[in-house]
Amino acid sequence: AKKALIIGAGIAGIATAIRLALKGYRVEVFEANCYPGGKLSILEMDEFRFDAGPSLFTMPQYVDELFKLAGKNPEDYFKYQKLDTVCRYFYEDGTQLTAYADANKFANEISKATGEPVEAVKKHQANSSNIYNITNHVFLERSLHNIKTYLSRDALQSVFKFAQIDAFRTMHKANDASFKSDYLVQFYDRYATYNGSNPYTAPATLNVIPHLEQHYGAYFPDDGMYSIITSLVKLAESLWVNFYYQSPVDEIVLKNDKAEGIKVNDKLITGDLVVSNMDVWFTYSKLLKAHPRLHPKKTLNQERSSSALIFYWGIRKQFKELDLHNVFFSTDYKAEFDHIWKKKSIFHDPTVYLNISSKYKPDDAPEGCENWFVMINVPANTGQDWDSMIIEARFNILRKLTRILGEHVSDLILCESILDPWGIESKTSSYQGSLYGTSSNSKFAAFLRHPNKSPKISNLYFCGGSVHPGGGIPLCLLSAKIVSDLVEAKS
Ligand code: FAD
User: Fold this and answer.
1) Nearest to 434 by CA among 384, 380, 360, 369
2) Does this complex have an ipTM over 0.95?
3) Please, what are the domains in the chain?
4) Global pTM?
5) Region 309-332 average pLDDT
């Protein structure tokens, strides 16, 4: 059988391994860390367990699809439930908003909390759904770098409807024009952060994101987010995929601009094709550093998505008013994004996202306690003084939570761990610690992401959040599908 070598056991690397194994390839995955999952990892501290990276699970059908392709019942490996309450939102003036999965219930809740007419909310929901229907097949599920994509019927239809995807004004402008209520404008603007972008510059096309959450729903895996990884690794191993941990790849070895294999611990391992799940920036700058003429410089110099600062706190109390996902909004969203994107710093009143998996998985925290994953959006790492920024941000976050919850949160912290952009970069080789590869702040971003197949090096493919179609679990899983379609098209 032909042999495929995969660099990195992030979710996209694992999904690609499964797809290629099902195509009859002998697949070997080389992972630098001693565990699989990359950004999707786990943290255990005292008696608390945390999902260290992603916490919001959408589009679970893309995970199920992998089990089904292998002829297995997904439920035998991986169980999850749909959330009735997607997220709770808190504003400084005491206004609260609960996002329900049920669209009508949610529109009524919005109208009750903010005074916005239900029709305005429904119109926005319909617009999101329309953008999704136009863009989905063309921008997300296929290669943008393959002429066939543009010749399909879907693509041609999308071209005629291009004006409807709202690419020529910013997301904020579109939301501001849709709603009278500033609460709602802020609520919808926040979706830009789902791929690490800035609503004040990103195109209104990103208003597609709430559709994914509100129409397709938000989910929680019964055994926590990390079970997405453990169940997929189990599936891959059942298909005879070999995983090698603590095996950082040092080089992609080329012969006549063709990938001959990879170097791990000075040993050459040959294969018929190589797939890099390593951040595309480091793939070129480290693994292909001997071949600068093959580097796509323009692609690599694009602006990176934002990063995150996370505090993992074991809390010795349970809060009835909190749910699995909670957001505490900044009083000045524009200033918050100006700090992240222009000043490359952190605003003194940041929007705080609080995830508590023990709400759904009680054994993640001891009795009477909760595991708090407290995250703010921060700029990508360009050499800021993180130590002092973290101290200040921690103080401001605690003050904000204490103000809104009416409890001295700092007195409740039993244990703490911190992850910053520098830590994200060093743990997963993600350039500048960005969460989602390149940002979507430009209307051309979708076309500028690196393709899933190298244009210059035959037999070299790319998957994961730093390449097409972008970051986040669902898109990473789609990148694996596109790679496997491209491999098939060639062989
Ligand atoms: P990565 O997870 O980036 O993994 C790449 C792997 O390659 C790593 O394991 C790394 O060690 C390995 N590697 C790198 N270089 C080498 C080498 N030379 N040799 C061998 N191995 C190598 N997404 C969502 O959908 N929902 C969320 O709520 C969400 N929240 C997030 C919160 C945080 C804090 C973070 C960090 C990310 C979040 N994301 C979220 C984004 C999501 O986690 C990523 O888009 C996705 O997990 C990236 O997967 P990937 O396949 O690109 O690989």
Assistant:
1) 380
2) yes
3) 3-41+56-76+225-302+439-490 (3.50.50.60), 115-211 (1.10.405)
4) 0.96
5) 98
